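Exercise 7. Given the encoded structure of a 253-residue chain, write a plausible sequence.
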């Protein structure tokens, strides 16, 4: 119901127009409309993959413009991630860097006529946040071991705290709740900001020529917000990894 109410305020896009053409009352039209966000997400994956292929298929010592642009982007992402995680962060650059590029492209897609930002849907952002959650938990167990990760979740009790029961269990419960809340807050933050920007652009577009100045100004703000939200999502993801990886280098860890 929430998705249906949201759709009433959205600008027409390729998938919604196709669903209307087929007929939303039909089974095929309904399925096309229901898979709208997935279709746009996969379309963006295809475009990103195509650009990466074209840039890497003939790598040169003296790069062309496309290869040079991507190398600058990847180098900046690597410096950003390793600046927080240290040298071990390079292992996670492909994952976090891909997240940033993918989310940025999805955020900006809604500014292209007949396209839509898949990140304006909670189903998309929750899926991304769930991937982060699973990978962070896997990394924590892999780097610290199961008992080490459990020790981390209990707040690494030492001394007299190690002989108590209440405080370590309380810390364990607090950490579990914190870990479960993270993907929800991470996904809702991204979804709400992009959805709000898309909704504002849709409303201003309905004003016709009178709303063009405000529409242009809002579009510029939406571009800035798209970049900021991709950075915030990637930064928080990097911090979640840092909270797990820092314990590995502590004395006695």
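Solution.
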């Amino acid at each position: 119901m929430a998705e249906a109410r949201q759709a009433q305020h959205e600008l027409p896009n390729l998938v919604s127009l196709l669903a209307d053409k087929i007929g939303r009352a039909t089974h095929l039209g309904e399925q096309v409309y229901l898979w709208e966000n997935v279709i746009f997400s996969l379309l963006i994956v295809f475009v990103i993959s195509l650009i990466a292929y074209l840039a890497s298929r003939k790598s040169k010592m003296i790069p062309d413009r496309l290869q040079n642009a991507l190398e600058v982007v990847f180098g900046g992402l690597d410096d950003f991630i390793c600046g927080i995680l240290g040298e071990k962060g390079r292992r996670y650059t492909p994952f976090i860097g891909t997240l940033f590029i993918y989310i940025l492209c999805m955020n900006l897609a809604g500014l292209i006529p007949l396209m839509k930002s898949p990140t304006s849907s909670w189903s998309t952002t929750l899926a991304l946040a769930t991937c982060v959650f699973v990978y962070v938990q896997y990394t924590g167990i892999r780097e610290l071991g199961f008992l080490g990760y459990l020790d981390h979740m209990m707040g690494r009790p030492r001394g007299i705290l190690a002989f108590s029961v209440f405080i370590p269990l309380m810390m364990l419960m607090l950490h579990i709740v914190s870990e479960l809340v993270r993907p929800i807050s991470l996904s809702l933050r991204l979804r709400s900001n992009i959805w709000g920007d898309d909704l504002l652009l849709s409303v201003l577009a309905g004003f016709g020529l009178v709303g063009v100045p405000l529409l242009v100004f809002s579009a510029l703000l939406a571009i800035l917000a798209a970049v900021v939200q991709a950075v915030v999502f990637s930064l928080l993801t990097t911090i979640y990894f840092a909270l797990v990886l820092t314990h590995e280098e502590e004395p006695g860890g």
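Remark. DSSP finds nine helices and no strands in the chain. Students should compare their own answers with the one above.
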